[in-house]
Amino acid sequence: MNSKPSLTELRALTAIVSHRSFRKAAGDMDMAPSTLSHMMTALETRLEVRLLHRTTRSVSPTAAGQRLVDRLAPILHAIDSALVEIESERQRPSGQLRLTASETASMILMQTAIPTFIEQYPEVSVDLVAKSEFVDIVAEGFDAGFRLGEDIPLDMIAVRFGEPSRMLPVASPAYLRNKQIPLTPDDLKDHQCICSRTPAGRSFKWEFERQGESLSVDVAGALRLNRSELMLQAAISGLGIAFVPQLLAKPYLKQGQLVPLLESWCPYYPGLALYYPGYRQVPVNLRAFIEVLKTTPNSLDPSL
Predict the structure, then answer these.
(1) Are 83 and 31 in contact (CB under 8 A)?
(2) Angle of helix 228-236 relative to helix 246-254, nearest 10 degrees?
(3) Distance in angstroms (rounded) separating the CA atoms of residues 94 and 112
(4) CA 235, chain centre distance (Å)
(5) I need a surface site. Which of 69, 139, 222, 253 has the fewest CB within 10 A?
(6) Are 245 and 105 in contact (CB under 8 A)?
(7) Residue 23 and residue 33: Cα distance in Å, rounded?
(8) What angle (nearest 5°) sits at the alpha carbon of residue 152, between those of residues 150 and 153?
(9) How confident is residue 138, by pLDDT bands cut at 50, 70 and 90?
(10) At what angle do helices 103-111 and 228-236 cross, to 10 degrees?
């Protein structure tokens, strides 16, 4: 062999075999079909191996040509991926980053990672959409989403974020004054509870678990709300017991505005996670946001 094939020649051979056409491969390679044909003839001459069967109407690989292309495919793909990564490294994040998160995750992000990200990357605009229901981020055009780690589809890449939390009944000291403190979930039936509905319109049942025993309580009350922040404010105002994410209630618990109830019946669940499709190159904006996420404190500010 006089000389080794060039990368251009190997890409050209792969394109020809993929398209079974000199004309289509020439379009990929941005050269004339006749130039491509001469290149393959010269390559076969140097290798002293016939790589392609040619007729006036078609082209197909010989057995040797197909074996070569099969070996080249993963190598060329790796080269392309490496070049894309290098290209993206020199790009400055800019444009838009679209995120979707639950109400709780949105609250955490607005106090933690997002202000830091905007400060570091002022050329990126962040579009954060809070939705209680699970979102198909690919179908709805989001770069990434936030949900509980255990709820993320298996075909997504997950990046853990947020301390473990749990759903917790809370009430104000004023509401609990002169009332019997609930000791079991069944005791909630004797209290005014701040109710809510699922996105489908069904009454939201309060779920509890202790030592393998699970209970689902259909609570009742004079007030029904659809957002955790409103439930917290209602509980602080003494209107009843609210069942909310502990992460949201944490500042008010620290300040004594709310009192936790039935803690032994409220198991912790894994923290939040950012998730994004695992089958495509990570956009530069999202990659920058992930780096900020990994280095930013992820709990709510207890001073609020």
Answers:
(1) no
(2) 30
(3) 20
(4) 32
(5) 139
(6) no
(7) 5
(8) 125
(9) confident
(10) 80
> In this structure, what are the phi and psi dihedrals at residue 109, rounded to the nearest 5 degrees?
-65, -35
**Integer Cα distance of 271 and 186 in angstroms:** 28
Which residues lie across from 194 on neighbouring strands?
223
**How many CA atoms lie within 13 Å of 59's alpha carbon, on the beta-carbon side?**
22
Residues in the chain: 304
Reduced to 3 states, what is the DSSP secondary structure of residue 278?
coil
Contact partners, residue 225, CB within 8 Å, separation at least 6: 194, 195, 196, 231, 234
Contact call for residues 161 and 270 (beta carbons, < 8 A): no
Token digits for 150?
């255990």
CA angle 201, 210, 271 (to 5 degrees): 65
- Specify the residue for token string 């959409």: 129
Helices marked H in the chain? 7-19, 22-29, 33-47, 63-89, 103-111, 113-120, 173-176, 228-236, 246-254, 284-295
What would the two tokens of residue 4 be? 């080794």
Q: Which two tokens stand for residue 138?
A: 């690919």
Which uninterrupted H or E stretch holds 157? strand 156-161
Range scoring the smallest mean pLDDT among 97-101, 114-118, 133-137, 197-201: 197-201
Tens-digit pLDDT profile for residues 196-246: 876 666 778 999 999 989 999 999 999 999 888 899 999 999 999 999 988
Q: Which residues contact 99 (CB under 8 A, 6 or more apart)?
A: 109, 126, 127, 128, 129, 142, 143, 144, 145, 146, 289
HEC sequence for 191-235? CCEEECECCCCCECCEEEEECCEEEEECCCCCEECCCHHHHHHHH
pLDDT grade for 299, boundaries at 50, 70 and 90: very low
Report how far residue 93's alpha carbon sits from residue 96's, in angstroms, rounded to the nearest whole number. Answer: 9
3-class SS of residue 185? helix
